[in-house]
Amino acid sequence: MKRARERHGKTRAYVADAMGHSVEWAKGIENDRFKMPSLPKLLRLAHVLGVEDLTELTGDDRIAAATYTKAEHTALPRIRHALTRYELRPADREPEPANVLTARTRQAWKLWHAKGDHRTAIVALLPGLLDDTKHSARLLEGADRRRAQVALAEAYHLAQLFLSFQPAPDLVYLTGDRAMAAAQDADSPRAIAAAAWYMNHVHRDAGEAAEARVDLAEQAVALIPRGDDPEHISRRGLLYLAVALSYAKTGQQGDAWRYWDKADAAAKELGTTPTRG
Questions:
Q1: Last residue of some domain: 14, 46, 69?
Q2: How far is CA 53 from CA 15, 47, 137, 235, in A?
Q3: Structural domains counted in the chain
């Protein structure tokens, strides 16, 4: 534990705080005064330290931390098929109107946030939603096409959330990249900001060079118009929060608190901004 901590430039205080324990606990683990943590806590410790192989902490036979963290949902193959299936010939059907796609996407998000087994419930909608939004985004024109691209980006965000609980990192990154491409094709700063937020979140959660997504978030912030629009203020604040969390994940406290203050300022500004009816 000490070697891993020092290799990543993290203090005992940082590790202890991330684990919800005292500095004495961290010191006791390192000095062999406490027994081996339970498996869930050991996995959490590996995550905090950026350790992929638990043998670095246990000294036992090779154990990949990812083996124990995520169980495959029975519907994962269906989602994988929906994401990796390509229609090289135009389908013989009319594209759905952009406003219908927007309503379907909104309904899917409500379902995701509903009580119960929302992951299983979303699987019933997601493949069809992805197919229809991709189809419309290819065939519609002008403003309707851009609105379909925004709906497509949001459908990919849903897929990202489902996949972030699955042992399928390749699909997580695939959906993140496609969501950003759809948002850029829509030429929508709000959609780009949302895509940057999810991209930052996914990379941070996976421990994949979280600081590399900071630049992406800052670029997205620069695209958001200034003013008193609550949507713009909230998305700007979310991106500042994403940067703060990324810096916190890598133990860069000064930068983390600096961006936390920016996010807090945006939240306070949003709290005093009248909503538009």
A1: 69
A2: 18, 10, 42, 36
A3: 2
